[in-house]
Amino acid sequence: MIYVTHDQLEASTFADEIAVMYNGQIVQFGTPRELFETPNHTFVGYFIGSPGMNLMEVTPTEVGVRFDDVDVPLSSSYRDAIAKASSSNIKIGIRPEFVHVWEKENLLLKSTGIAC
């Protein structure tokens, strides 16, 4: 059965798999969890989830990526993928519900090189 809706919450609730369309093209097909956790297109990242994913342009560094004055370390597989990319339009997506603020520096983040 194919069900068409513009409501991402409704689609995520009822569907086993979802085809997300942008400008008349399917940009990603997968389970609701796959679309939420690993969006392959900026529209999917913003459209799936409430609130949508925040997307920021980044520049590659030796250890990962940087936006503003924030260095984000990445695994070697992500760094390799960035190095092989044919586009310089690279963005990092951050879901607001996974951002936490602490009064004191978090030791886990300190060990990864990210300071809060």
Would you summarize the structure shown here?
With 116 residues, the chain is α+β, with helices and mostly antiparallel strands.
Structure description:
- The protein is of the alpha+beta class and 116 residues long.
- The longest helix is centred in the C-terminal third of the chain and has 9 residues.
- The relative contact order is 0.12.
- The mean pLDDT is 87.
Question: Which features would summarize this protein structure in a list?
Answer:
two-stranded antiparallel sheet; single chain; 7 strands; alpha+beta; 3-stranded antiparallel beta sheet; about 120 residues
Determine the number of helices (DSSP H or I, runs of at least 4 residues). 5
Mean pLDDT level: 87
Characterize the overall form.
globular
Largest beta-sheet details: 3 strands, antiparallel
SSE class = alpha+beta
| End-to-end distance | 47 Å
Radius of gyration, in angstroms, nearest whole number: 17 Å
- What spatial order of strands do you see in the largest sheet? 4-5-6
* Total beta-strand segments: 7
The residue ranges in which pLDDT falls below 50 over 5 or more consecutive positions are: none
Task: Give the SSE order as H and E letters.
Answer: HEEHHEEEEHEH
Helix content: 25-40%
Binned strand content: 25-35%
